[in-house]
Amino acid sequence: MNDRLIEAIAERREDLVSLTLELIRFPTVNPPGEAYRPCAEHIGARLGEGGFAIEYIRAEGAPGDSDRYPRTNIVARREGELAGPTVHFNGHIDVVEPGQGWSLDPFKGVVRDGRVYGRGACDMKGGLAAAIIAAETYIDLNPSFPGAIEISGTVDEESGGFGGVAWLASRGYFSKPRVDHVIIPEPLNKDRICLGHRGVWWAEIETKGEIAHGSMPFLGDCAVRHMSAVVAAFEAELFPLLEAKRTRMPVVPEGARRSTLNLNSVHGGQTDDFRPGLPSPNVPDSCRLMIDRRYLLEEHPDEVKDEVISILEGLRRSRPRFDYEIRDIMEVRPLMTEPDAPVAAALAHGIRAVFDREPDYVISPGTYDQKHVARIGQLYDCVAYGPGILDLAHRPDEWVGIDDMVESAQVMAIGLDLLLRGTG
Predict the structure, then answer these.
(1) Measuring CA to CA, which residue among 244, 251, 328, 250 is closest to residue 293?
(2) Can you give the residue range of the structural domain that contains 234?
(3) Where does the Peptidase M20 dimerisation domain start and stop, copy by copy (predicted)?
(4) Please, what's the b/e burial string for 183-218 (b: 16 or more CB within 10 A of its CB; e: otherwise)?
């Protein structure tokens, strides 16, 4: 069966490329959430012709959802002829904005030198197309397969997944008994299995001040200066502490095997809201700092927060007139599926069959939709595996290798066979 799947998928190389180009040509930019429904319907039309039952599910009321930008997800299900487990392939259809620096149209979809170029080629329309080809090929060769196969195209992964996988998971789409195994074809390289991700805590810190005329700052209290004290304290106390923390998790790249903190943005005072192009004459009475704290399996989220809050409380005690508020934006705990779990073991079998080598097991430095499958759906047999190089995601001239897509589709089809039939 492995040889038949490998050969049949190789013969569908052009179909795989065409499908990837079709998906890229839907400019599903998030935010605001453009072209979600037409992209979902395109996937649904194809899978419906192949005998899948199709559902379009709008996440009404989710962040960003509106009649202009509906959060439309597709879930397709193909029942087998015998009882058995369900394997679900989940890919997100949203992409980040193109940004500057492209040498070609980011939504034209271009084939050049064995690569498919375009926004989302790597992250992750190439992976979704590979999963679709893998499932279609498997069904054609095994029309009486046991269990069920599901494929979903979901939205908003790039902004947290709340209108996509989180919404569906809260409604039972990623829980037993409906689903047993989940594969997310994120771009982690064709010979690596991603077992999970680090934790993340996003928070906004606001320092308080008192407004006054800019020519007499001594009559006010500058919130920006208070924030500079926060940043200085982070530099002196927090960053050295994080640098010393290491994990047993196989996080890639190497630098992400420690705790990290990114200062995402700082906003203080009146700028363009006063008068475009002119500075404000006021002492700023508010300054906001967004922090992005990535943490390890060995750390507890309460510890992560306490490290920041203790610094802020220390400033409250030592710095005259210092006051602050801190607001949680998002919290995701670290995840790591064991490498001998069924879905990881099945994909490892596929990697051995296609590449004649043992897979590498990695952890993603950032989060992806596995967090919702595990935390909301309570389904832990979930990994990320797909074609593409993670370093190319979100960059100009993003691309995915055609050979990589073909070979990863072969791996996924072999893994699917093992999960459904229990044989290699």
Answers:
(1) 328
(2) 199-331
(3) 196-313
(4) bbbbbbbbbbbbbbbbbbbbbbbbbebebbeeeeee
- Same domain? 206 vs 317: yes
CA-only gyration radius of the chain, Å: 24
How far is residue 193's CA from residue 189's CA, in Å, rounded to a whole number? 8
What is 322-356 written as a DSSP string?
--EEEEEEEEE--EE--TTSHHHHHHHHHHHHHHS
Residues 152, 173: Cα–Cα separation, whole Å: 10
For residue 308, the domain's CATH number is: 3.30.70.360
The pLDDT of residue 276 is above 70: no
94 is catalytic: yes
Of 267, 296, 331, which marks where a domain is finished? 331
Least confident stretch, 130-144, 168-182, 272-286, 403-417: 272-286
Given the residues 150, 157, 158, 407, the one annotated as active site: 157
Using CA atoms, how far apart are residues 358 and 341, in angstroms rounded to an integer? 16
Tens digits of per-residue pLDDT, 379-424?
999 999 999 998 899 999 999 999 999 999 999 999 999 999 985 4
Count of structural domains, the chain = 2
Q: Which of 1, 387, 353, 419 is nearest to 193 (CA)?
A: 387
Q: Are residues 321 and 213 in the same domain?
A: yes
Q: Do 285 and 383 sit in the same domain of this protein?
A: no
Calculate the CA dihedral of residues 354, 359, 362, 366 and round it to 10 degrees: 0
**Catalytic residue from among 34, 65, 94, 150:** 94
Q: Do residues 385 and 183 lie in contact, with contact meaning Cβ atoms separated by under 8 Å?
A: yes
Mean per-residue pLDDT over the chain, rounded: 96
Among 305, 331, 357, give the residue marking a domain's end.
331
pLDDT tens, residue by residue, 294-331: 999 999 999 999 999 999 999 999 999 999 999 999 99
Claim to verify: residue 281 and residue 219 sit in the same structural domain: yes
Q: Are residues 173 and 238 in the same domain?
A: no
- Tokens standing for 253? 């790249």
Q: Given phi > 0 = left and psi -120 to 50 = alpha, else beta, which region is 102?
A: beta
